[in-house]
Every structure is written in C-alpha cells, then in structure tokens.
Amino acid sequence: MAYLINCPYCGPRTTDEFYIKGDASKQRPDTIGDGTLDTWHDYVHIRENVRGRMAEHWHHTGGCRQWLVVERDTVSHEIYAVTPASTWATSRKGSSTAARKKPARKTAARKATGRKTGGRAKT
Amino acid sequence: MTSFRFDTGGLIDRSSVIDFSFDGRTLTGHGGDTLASALLANGQLLMGRSFKYHRPRSVITAGAAEPNALMEIGEGGRLEPNTRATMQEIYDGLVAKSQNRWPTLDRDFGAINSIASSLFVAGFYYKTFMWPKKFWEAIYEPIIRRAAGLGHLSHEDDPDRYEKAYAHCDVLVVGSGPTGLMAALSAARSGASVILADEHASCGGSLLREREEIAGQPGHEWAAGTLAELAAMSNVTIMARTTVIGAYDQGVFGALERVQKHVAVPDHDVPVEKLWRIVAKACVMATGAEERPIVFGGNDRPGVMTASAMRAYANQYAVAAGRSACVFTASDSGYRTARDMKAHGVHVEAIIDARSDAPEIDTDGVPVLTGAVVTNVDGGKHAMKAIEIDRGSGHETIPCQSLAMSGGWSPVVHLACHQGARPSWDEDAYCFMPPLNNPAIIPAGSANAVWSLSKCLADGAARGEQAAKLAGFKTRKTPVPKAKDETSHTSAPVWWVKQSTGKPFVDYQNDVTAKDLPLAAREGYDHIELAKRYTTSGMATDQGKLGNVNAIGILADATGKDMHEIGTTTFRPFYTPVSFGALGGQHVDAHFRPVRMSPLHNWAADLGAEFVETGLWYRSSWFPRDGDDWLAAMTREVLNTRAHVGLCDVSTLGKIDIKGKDATEFINRLYSNAFAKLPVGKARYGLMLREDGFVGDDGTTSRLSENHYFMTTTTGHAAETMRDIEFAHQALWPELDVQYASVTDQWAQMAIAGPKARDVLAKIVDTDLSNDAFGFLAAKQVRVLGSIPAMLFRISFSGELAYELAVPAGYGEAVANAIMHAGEPYGIGPYGLEALSAMRIEKGFVTHNEINGRVTAGDVGMGRMLSKKKDYIGRMMSERDGLDDPDREQLVGVKPLNPANRFRAGSHLVNLGDKPSLKTDQGYVSSVAYSPMLESWVGLAMLKHGRERHGQKVMLWDGLRDVYMEAEVCDPVFFDPAQEKAHG
Ligand SMILES: [Zn+2]
To answer: What does DSSP assign to residue B108?
Structure first.
C-alpha cells in the first residue's frame, strides 16, 4: 500500500504500476567528450542516501511506459513534481552545456535536502 | 457454568435461533450474537488457554483488542485460526474450536508450565535455548514449535474468493459511534462524499453498548435514525464489517471488509473478504478509546473483564459472566458498570476503588471501598469464586462470580501513528494522545480524549466540518442533539497492584507478568523497544492493544522515568490481523503467475510436445515418440535436424520494432559492436552491455529498410531490455528521433534449420533463397503462402543452414503446419528447447547461463567486438582495469574423460589434486548437454585462464551430489568450427 504518482500522461496512478530505478540527479557523462573513468565511476556507482527531497527515475511500466522523474521527500513521501524524463534530460543537457567548464555541480536533490521534523502540537 | 443470558433486554434477535458448534458441542445463539456472547449465553466461560502457561482464559474485552478468546473457525480449506470470538458473528453451522490446548480445553497438559513458571521469566527463550548449537534443530525448535499453539493452519486450498478494491471519497470517517455519526452527518451535509467505516457488524459503536440517551431517545435508536438519514444521502457510503487497518501517504487508507465471514457457505460470485484502498482528502479518526485493564493478581481468571466489556455484554447481548459481580476501578467507568449490572439484576457486591480520594459518584446503593485493591482472584476454569482485596489492613475475601476492572482509557491512536509519528503522554488526561502531524487525519471524540457523550457529539460535528472544509467544501454548523452527561473525572492510573498475591498479567496473550518488565530493565533491556522484545509484551496477535500502556507505566515505575521518557513502541499497520487471502486478493494461481503461450503452442501440443516453464512462458521442450524419454527424443531431434531439417518455435524471443530518422544512431549506441554501417537487408548479431561494462543481453537486429529495424532479445531479458531501451531514449538521448514498440506478442517466429531448410522454405516463400540472393545474415520482408506478410532472416542458432521466419501471430499455426507439410518429403521434424540447447552448446553459443551479469565481453570471447569508435551503453566502464585481467574466468568447453558420464551445470572446476575450496576454485560449468554429434556429455564453462588451457585436464566437482569427475578443457565450439554448414 503506498502512495499515488501523478503521471503527466495518465493521471494519478498507484505505485503498483511503476518500476523505480533510482537517483535521477546524475547525468550520464559524455564518453567521447569530457567523460573520464572518475566521472563514470561517480555516475554508475556513487549514490547519496538522501534524507529529504530527492529526484528519482520511475517508469510507468503498467501504464504509458514513459520514464518519469519523480521528485519526492524520502521521509514524508510527499511528491513535489513529476516530469517526463525526456523533459528533465533536455533541460539539464542545456544547463550542463552552459556550465560545461564549471566543476562538477552539486545535484539539485542534494541542495534541496532538508530535514523534516516530526514535532507534534500538544492538544 | 456461571455465565448466562438475561431473560429480557439486549439488541439481539431472540426470534432467530442459530445453531453452532464449539469444540464439537452443538450450542445455540441468537441473531446479533458474536461467538463470544453466544458462548457466555451457553455457560461457556472458558474459551482458550494462554500461550506460555496454558492458563484457562475467557474474554477480557468485547471488541477488536481481545487477546484471549482466539478460536479456529471453519473447517477444511476454510479453517482460519486466531479469530477473535469477540468479532466473529455466529451463523448457522459455524464450527469453532478452542486453541492452544492438548488434548482438550478442559484437561490441558501444557498447564504444567504454570507450575514451573519460575523457569519462564522474561528472556527465557534467550537464556535457555542457547547451547549446544546442534540441539537447536533436533530438540529446542520442535519443543518451541509444538508449545507455540496459537491455532493450526489448514493445508488445504482456500476455496473462497478474495478481492482488492479501490474507493475514493472526500471524507473518510473511521468509527460509527456518537462522534463518527456526527462527523459523517456534518461532512455529508456540506456535500462532501463520505465513507463511514466501522469494524463491527452493526454501526453505532458505544451507543449500542451503553444505556445513554440522545435527544430523548435511547442511544441505539438515535444511532439507527442517524444511520438511516446517512444511508438515504447519495453522497454517503456506509461500510460495516470494515476495519480501517492502515493510514498511508497521500490520503491512502487500507481497509479490510469482511463481506462473507458471517455466512455458512459463501456465495462464490462474491468475495469473502475485500481489501480496500480508500483514497480520502481528509479522515476523521473517530476510533474511540480502549479501556485499560488493571494489572493485579489473577486478573486473567475467567470472569474478569474490562468494565466496558461487562456493560457491552449486558446491554448489547444480554449476557453476563456471573450472577454476582464486583468492580475494581480507578476510573468512573467502573461505577457505570455497577449501576448497569444492577439494573440487569446482577448482584453487585462492591466497588473497589483504588483511589483513596475517589470522587463522589452515584453507585445506586452499591457499597464503595476506597483506597482498596484486588490482590488475587480465586476461581477455576469454569467459574470465579471470590476476590481477595487489600484495604491496607490485611487481606479480605469477597465472594463473587465476575469482576469488572477499569484502569482508565487509552485513545485508539493507531491511524494517526502509522506514518511514523508517535503519540505523546498527556499529564492531565493520563493517556497517550494521537499525534497531529498529518493535518488530514483528524482525531475526534474519545480518540482525542474527549470523554463525555455530549462533548463527543459536538466534537464529531466540528471535526466533520473541519474535514469537509479541508476537502474544499463550504460547511454550515450542524445542530448537535442534546445528551445527558454523567460526571467524568480523570484520575492518576494504577499501573499495577504491588501487593498482588496471584500472578498479575500485563500481556495476556503472551503471558507477560508485571514482574517481567522490571526484570528486563534490571538486565539492561529498559528501552521500551528492547523490553518489548525481551519480554514479548505487546508482540502477540493483539499487538498489545490492552496491555502496552500498562507495560509502559510499569517500566516507568521500575526505571524511575516518566511516561513520556519511556514512550511507546512503533505503531505499524495493520491495526488488526489481515488474512493472506485478502492480501493476495484475486492474484492467485494463473492470476498471480499468468501463463504465456506462444502462438505456436497448439502446433506443438498437436505434435505431442512436452512443455517446460521458462519464466511465464510455456515452451515446447521435446517431442516424445513411442514413449521415449527427453534424452532419446532430444537426440532424435538433433540428429534429424543436422541430417535433414527441423522446425523449432522461437516465438518467445523478445522482439522490438524500431523506426525513425535516428534509428541507426540509436541502435548504434545500444549495442557495443558496430551497427552504423549495417546495410539494408542484413541482420547482425549484437552484444549489449550494461552501463557498468558487463554484458547485459544479446540478440540479432536486422535492417529492413533505411529507417526501420527489427531487434530480437533473449527470452529471459526481453522486458528488461525493452525498459532499458526506453530509458536510453527518454532519459539519456531524447533528442534522437526514434520510435520503438515491443512486438513480442505480435509475431510468431520459427527456426527452420538443417541442410534441407532452403528446399522446404522455397516451397512457401515468394523469394529467391539462393546463397547469392539471400546469403548468410540476409534479412527481408517477404510473403509466405502467397499473401501472408512475413520477415525472413538467415540466422542460425544451431550452426545449420537455417532461417528464422516471423509471421503475424495469428498465422503462426497455419504457417508452421504448412512448413511441416512442405517438409514432409525432406524428413522434417519438430525440435524443442532441449534440442535447441544441445545444438547451441555444440556450437559454443552463449545464453544467459553464460552472460549471467558477472561476465565481460572478453570473458565470453567477444572482446574484439567492442567498438573503439563510438559511444555506447557501457563503453567507458568496460575499459576499466580488471575487466580485461588475464586471471578472469574465460569461456571454454569441457568434456568428461568418459563420454557417458553425465555432469551438471553449476559444478565447479579445480586443478587435479586440489581440494575444492574458494581458494582453489578455478571456475564453474555454466551449461551442459548431451551432444548427439559427439556422443558425449559436453559443457560450457567459465575457467580461469581458460583460453590458454585447451587440452588440459581439470577436476569437475559437483558439491550438491558429491561427484568428482575428470574432464578435458577444449574450445567451446565442439561442432563444425569452420561454420561451413551455416554458410552452405
Ligand atoms: Zn503514465
């Protein structure tokens, strides 16, 4: 029993219909261009254990078969945004081309990581 | 035999008489009875035995929290253990059995544990069953397992149907007591869609169980009127017999509806239980409060129950545990019980109030002993005789047949806690309050420590409005009916009676006593989560609904901490047990594991094929003739194919149709070998890596026209490869103009292999098949039998002159039959998966037996295929140091020295003279077949330095069967290494 994902193509659907791949913050290095074994190692193997907001690749396997980027809170499970993976990839390709010579950027997920506290109001 | 039914009263239907059986005895009850109330009406006070000490037990509650009265209900495949008699409605023919006793409930040998109880202290299992290690399997475990009675499972199939269902609403109201009814009413009047769920058969909650009045009517009549009003509203759904079992993210609630658990023979067209997923914008948690027992000596004796349970049995079901009663209380609830029982004609001896400053409350003439405690209960299995009390001046005895106890109230906070928040102790209300983290879960009424009836009605109305507003509706104030309130005082709880002379139980079901918790604390397990596991308090099927708060209080006492510091254990769904049947829903048998049948299934079945399950597929495995076994059939099929011609169903291969302006570029990035220059009309073998550089999958891809490709994948990885391709396009290279679709099920595909393959095909295909026109690895869209569109590929997985022909699935059977007919003069025969495997092993072709996720292209001899000229999935990581380490295991062939010696895949390879170990391990056998051509068992293996070791001898070791066998390492291509046949 889990939450609903608002697929941009199909509307709100249960997670049963989806397959989760994981962290979407990494961008595939360009092998021919500036990819090195170090950047590839980071892309393939290194994952943050995010507490808080995280962007992940989900596949609507039992629906439209589109890959989506679901931004959600790993603590509260609140979903902030669901974007087609193609849109996400296209916008990031644009920004990475602009920032090509800058040092490896921190992921959006990491920057946005915020701890939600579970305080309760006394009644 | 002290329990009995009153001559009048109750909400039961005395005109309906229901026969049921308990431990083989036929008893009768009335419509509206639960199993528990019906047993009490029949004088059956004894209902079960406790888990550890096998103490005789009866009901403690009249609801969901019941820890004692657990029964096996039903027979055969319908048998369900651990059913709470307090929740089970009776029906004609119901068969109930008591649990945890042997040989009978009345004479139970396990009760001897009670005498040896000093052995069974907290941590007993940890302390006792420690050593020697081998005693575990042989002695300890069987003893523990037999002792752990708690009902039996039927080993028969459950004949009933279960279902999963979905519902959506604006406001979900959980609980239909006074609070829930008002909440549902006020929310529904705003126009919000409302679901009102209640776990009991009849809605009304406490209004069915108390003698209270609302708007001048008896409470249950007001409830019936309100329910009728709700039922008439089109935006309201009332779900009785439905327990909301969990609260999840985004307003998703789990609920279990017991649709047909109250009928003798369920209607097969209707599920017996439904597991609901209810999506609600807001939830009013009107779940009520649980009355706490008091922990004192003998508080588990049959005849002792909570004060509210005693009232419920009397008022709703017109039954009592005894003709006389005493009340032991630390709250006002005990007084109400005394008055109600007196009104029903039960003689109430005394109210023993633990509070020395007990408030003045109407007792209807029953004497009150303040500042007194019960220290023991004298009674047997079937009747209580007396209680022993202590007023500070030694022990006194009061004869009575039943005892009501009330240690105060605990709000039922579970749903508010399921998303991880914990309740907190309220010093003024003396209870754990529900957390308010989720604004959409709104505690109301006694679930939020609102105790009096009129306040609950008002709170329900207000919370219902609050929920409707949250769901986006405009609300108007709902008029709240008048109710006469009784005084209600809150008093400091009495966690346990230290002067107890009998055993004081905290957790009834797991037999945890008040002494176990301080012991756990002394031994270092003072954290509540540790104490729970060390003592097992709160770990039984009731999950400590009754005892947990007392346990926390006792632990606080023992450690000198306050309640808040100790805190609660974690509240996890489900609120009450859920059957596996309901969890499985309709997903059983083929609905759980669907069968995939090839479009050529019937063709193969008609030829007598034996099928084998590979994943979900049923594949034709071999075609026995004259009763020969798989080995004889496979051998015949291979020899016939290699000598003449054979037809094999390969429809299970994954098939992907790829089109688009950038299709060539896309495919070139998917495969590790070069694809950019594949000419139209040609097929090519392709190797796909994973992004980490290891081999992922392989197959052939054909270029049918400039921008149109047809890709095949392995059967086993078809779904995964499709998903990876979708990812590669959508998430990595969305700029590529390419479209793709899985067409696995759209095409029937068959391999036609053998020296006569061309002659046979020529009879049905409209194209020139000569080597010049259609050479090795040609691919073409053709027509068969004059008009059927098809794809023809000159590819060979057998090493023979071979073709694969794909036709639209619906034509598969007809085309296969036509080929068989055309091939008859050439000696065509069908061949199955066994023959296909044997031929591919003879040829040294790899499958997922070899490319198992741990091997590189180099390992399987395809290192040179990896392109250095392009980017592709896995390119960079495949060039890592270590992936081309010469010490890696490499693909080789192995042959036993004695060709008749069968060996198995999974066998390990060691050097001659070495003992098999991790250190001496040289590799493993990945595939084995009997080779009809070599007349020998042969295998493919992954062997360290394998390619340098052709001709060497190694030891094959099959650890499972303890077989050692000498074998020779050889080239993996056993047959026709020059590929002459395939090119012929
Ligand atoms: Zn979708």
So the answer is: B
- Only one residue has tokens 């040896």, namely B116
Q: Say how far apart CA B437 and CA B247 lie, in whole Å.
A: 13
* pLDDT band, residue A114 (cuts 50/70/90): very low
Hey, is B801 helix, strand or coil? coil
Kindly list the structural domains of chain B, giving each domain's residue range(s) and its CATH number in brackets, ordered by start: 4-124 (3.10.20.440), 162-289+411-470 (3.50.50.60), 504-567 (1.10.10), 654-839 (3.30.1360.120), 886-983 (2.40.30.110)
- How many beta-carbon pairs under 8 angstroms link A with B? 102
Interface residues on B facing A, Cβ-Cβ cutoff 8 A: 246, 248-250, 252, 254, 277, 279, 419-422, 424, 426, 433-437, 443, 448-449, 573, 691-692, 723, 726-727, 729-735, 870-871, 875-877, 879-880
The interface pTM score, or ipTM, of the predicted complex is 0.82
pTM confidence score:
0.85
| Residue A9, domain extent | 4-109
Residue A22 included in any domain:
yes
| Rounded-to-10 torsion of CA B686, B691, B692, B695 | -20
- The β-bridge relationship of strands B610-614 and B645-649 is unpaired
> Cα–Cα distance between B735 and B713 in angstroms, integer?
25
pLDDT tens, residue by residue, B114-151: 665 655 566 655 555 555 556 656 665 555 555 545 77
Nearest C-alpha in B relative to A6:
B250
**H/E element holding B22?**
strand B13-22
CATH of residue A56's domain is: 3.30.2270.10
Give the integer Cα–Cα distance in Å for A20 and A67.
10
Asked if the structure places residue A115 within a domain, the reply is no
* pLDDT number for residue A107: 40
What is the tally of structural domains in chain A? 1
Tens digits of residue pLDDT in B644-661: 999 999 999 999 999 999
Spatial contact of B562 and B556, defined as CB atoms under 8 Å apart? yes
Nearest to B804 by CA among B812, B815, B792: B792
Minimal Cβ distance to A4: which of B250, B727, B876: B250
Ligand 1 centroid from CA B511, angstroms: 52
Asked if B117 contacts B503 with a C-beta cutoff of 8 angstroms, the reply is yes
Summarize pLDDT for B97-116 with one digit per residue, the tens.
998 776 677 777 666 666 65
d(CA B85, CA B413): 23
Each residue's pLDDT tens digit, B167-223: 999 999 999 999 999 999 999 999 999 999 999 999 999 999 999 999 999 999 999
- The position carrying tokens 């040989």 is B103
Mean pLDDT of B751-780: 97
CB-based burial label for B225 (10 Å; 0-12, 13-18, 19+): middle
Q: What does the DSSP assignment read for B256-269?
A: EEESSTTSSS--TT
